[in-house]
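Limitations
The structure tokens in this dataset are predictions for the assembled complex, not deposited experimental models. Users should treat interface geometry with appropriate caution, especially where small molecules or nucleic acid strands are included. An illustrative entry is reproduced here so readers can see what is and is not provided.
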Amino acid sequence: MSAYQSEFAAIMVVLVIGFLPNEVWRVLGVLFGRGIDEEGAWMQWVKAVATALLAAVVARLILIPNGALVALPLWLRLSAVGAGVGGFIALRRSVLAGVLLGEAVLAGGAWWLGVA
Amino acid sequence: MHSSSNSPPTESGRPLLWFLQGMHASISAPGLVLMATFVGFGGLMHDIGFPIVAGVLSTILIWALPAQVILIGGLAAGASLPALAIAVCLSGVRLFPMVVSLMPLMRGRRSNIVVELICAHFVAVTLWVEGFRILPGVAREGRPAFTIGIGTGLIGISCAGTLLGFYLTSALPGPLAVALLLVTPISFTILLVRNAKAAVDWLAIGLGAALSPLVANSPGGLDLFWSGVGGGTLAFFAMRLWKRRRA
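Predicted assembly:
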């Protein structure tokens, strides 16, 4: 937990661990973008890994949170996310509507339980 | 929705006007969703104690919320820095095909490597989707300045959201402050569902999510490696095998 506590260390982390490994793909896209097969096996593997990575991070935030979310029971966290996805599908696939519905369920549940 | 397409300055050499029109186009429904997700990100940052200047810098420089969430969430979970750099790098690969496919629309009349690199920095999901929608209606010579304008506008909106979320968490009443922390997981789950088209996508989502709690606190801070790289690779090979069986 201490790697990012000082502002300077956090800025270095953002630059070296965040900016550089991410930006390299944009630069490569400009330099070597022409004639890449987007449907090739290599690209498909990369897409699958990127998707799984994101899902893993999100699942971790929901299932094993480490901040104020701990105060909420797991079922409420899961219902809020479920309501968000349900709202997205039901309400003309609007991301904003889904987020708002999920948030309403969460805030309502937290208020009702009297936690946080 | 935007006035940008029907008021083209005829002479070249008016990049400022194109830039401003691009900024104007960033004030839109996708811009609003972006703001909401960055409010959530700001709240998350506050919750784990990540400093605000570095956080806003991450929005400007990384400019890819998945990478930012992987970075901040990983730090909070105690991941090792090299493992995090690899995770961020892998999550950024999707930017490559985005830049490649959007570049012909952003480039303008003459190709200029510096301008192209600047335009490419703004490419993330929102600009990619909005670019395909708006840029064809923008006169060719104005496209680089317009792209930089809309990108700057979107990053500005997102920085405002990051700041707002960070300082809002401590000012909001309990239930709302907690709700703020779940904006990121909810919106990302929705985006995963929205972007999942093929069976391999669903399998990757399922395996990544299912492996994540199982490998939590792996030695060496390698949680993300096992769940992300492991889950994605498993999904990839499972689908290849399944397709081969059927063929």
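Some entries come with short summary sentences. For this one: Chain A touches chain B through 81 residues (CB under 8 Å).
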